[in-house]
From TrEMBL:
Residues 78-355 form the PPM-type phosphatase domain. This is protein-serine/threonine phosphatase. GO terms for molecular function: metal ion binding; protein serine/threonine phosphatase activity. Keywords: Hydrolase, Magnesium, Manganese, Metal-binding, Protein phosphatase. PROSITE patterns: PPM_1 (PS01032), PPM_2 (PS51746). Its cofactor is Mn(2+); Mg(2+). The lineage of its organism: Eukaryota, Viridiplantae, Chlorophyta, core chlorophytes, Chlorophyceae.
Length: 368
């Protein structure tokens, strides 16, 4: 796997402090994406807004802190995504972007952001359900309550956070399987999700959706003309071929590289017909503290990563940012290259989450 799994190797790095912003969301036309700040007048949502079928939220605000934003200092975040159904008749990807993902009544000093791409197969029902309910289930499982101790330093407990995410995935899939039985849903969904709690980044996935970190070399400052980020893959691909031993132990089979000869992935939301045959909703979770060297994350469905290598995507995004393009323009360009130049035939979704100081991240000069 390109770049390898990022885990304890980067835990030694210490995060630098900047200023924090949060964003607000509204719906916009296809292939547009979100970047900017949360509107102080927007009510706090119990669950993040989600979109599918080509509807993409966009924001007209500026990435500055609002009265509803957390009051702690920290790395400044901006984000955007773009999506296209490609040559498919329907759009089965669902994207979630919430720069302020705290629930009602949670501490104003806590920063929590949430991002995700849910890649449906055989339909969009399971992707939509998981996108709508996962964050709330993770919160119920103690992401903040157990993951953010009341100690003086206030640093999140990575182990407790991982446990909450795994439990949240499990609860979401259990509820989803009941819906599948009641409504005869036969589809499923892969997923890649990211939570940023204070200065801790948590990345989880099931299936073949992927997240890649663009990380600068030692002693580099993002934006320097001679500094280029290295691609580090943060997720693990869950295919039936790679998980044959676990599947067979669960009583399933792998035929021609597919679970029960039918589906290539071995972990997902939904896929009710395959859950007793070894398909699992257990995510792999990676955690690391933000540092000044961490430039951005790229999240994508398998359609995007099927035509883009990890380092190629990071290099392309870096070059576009160096040209002065804003986050929205970067994801639009990446999407256009994937669909129109590289001829991606599947649904295609890509998201960027950018890290930096308030001064650097607030500059969004080009939204073409």
């Amino acid at each position: 796997m390109e770049g390898g799994i990022l885990e304890d190797a980067i835990a030694k790095d210490q995060s630098e402090q900047g200023a924090l912003a949060a964003g607000h969301r509204k719906r916009g036309p296809e292939d547009e994406s979100v970047e900017a700040a949360r509107d102080a007048k927007e009510p706090r949502l119990q669950e993040p807004a989600v979109t599918s079928g080509g509807e993409v939220p966009s924001s007209a605000g500026q990435p500055n802190a609002s009265p509803n934003a957390p009051t702690t200092t920290g790395t400044f975040l901006t984000a955007a995504y773009s999506e296209d159904k490609g040559c498919r008749n329907t759009m089965e990807d669902v994207c979630v972007l919430s720069l302020d993902a705290r629930l009602e009544g949670q501490s104003e000093t806590c920063r929590l952001a949430y991002f995700g791409i849910f890649d449906g197969h055989g339909g969009v029902s399971c992707a939509s359900f998981a996108a709508q309910h996962l964050h709330a289930r993770v919160m119920e499982s103690g992401l903040i309550q157990k993951g953010l101790p009341t100690s003086s330093d206030g640093k999140p407990d990575a182990k407790a956070c991982k446990t909450a995410i795994v439990e949240g995935y499990k609860k979401t899939d259990e509820a989803l399987l009941k819906e599948c039985a009641a409504k005869n849903w036969q589809d499923g969904a892969c997923a890649v999700t990211v939570w940023v709690l204070q200065e801790l980044v948590l990345v989880a996935n099931v299936g073949d959706a992927k997240c890649v970190l663009g990380r600068l070399p030692d002693k580099s400052t993002y934006g320097a003309s001679d500094s280029k980020p290295k691609a580090i893959v943060l997720t693990k691909e869950h295919t039936a071929l790679l998980e044959r031993q676990r599947i067979e132990k669960a009583g399933g089979t792998v035929v021609n590289g597919r679970l029960a000869g039918r589906i290539q992935i071995a972990r997902s939301f939904g896929d009710a017909a395959f859950k007793k045959l070894g398909c699992s909703s257990m995510p792999d979770v990676t955690a690391f503290p933000l540092t000044a060297r961490d430039a951005f994350l790229l999240l994508g469905c398998d359609g995007f990563w099927g035509v883009f290598g990890a380092q190629e995507a990071v290099d392309t995004a870096h070059s576009l940012l160096a040209e002065g393009l804003g986050d929205k323009a970067v994801t639009n360009r990446l999407l256009n290259v994937a669909v129109r130049e590289k001829r991606c035939k599947d649904n295609c979704s890509v998201m960027i989450v950018r890290f930096g100081s308030s001064q650097a991240a607030a500059v969004q000069p080009d939204t073409r």
